[in-house]
Amino acid sequence: YPPEAFRLDIQGKVTIEFTVETTGSVSNLRTLNFLGGGCDAEAMRLVRTLCWQPAVKDGQLVRSVMKLDIMFRLDPSRR
Question: Alpha-carbon distance 12 to 72, whole Å?
Answer without folding.
Answer: 5
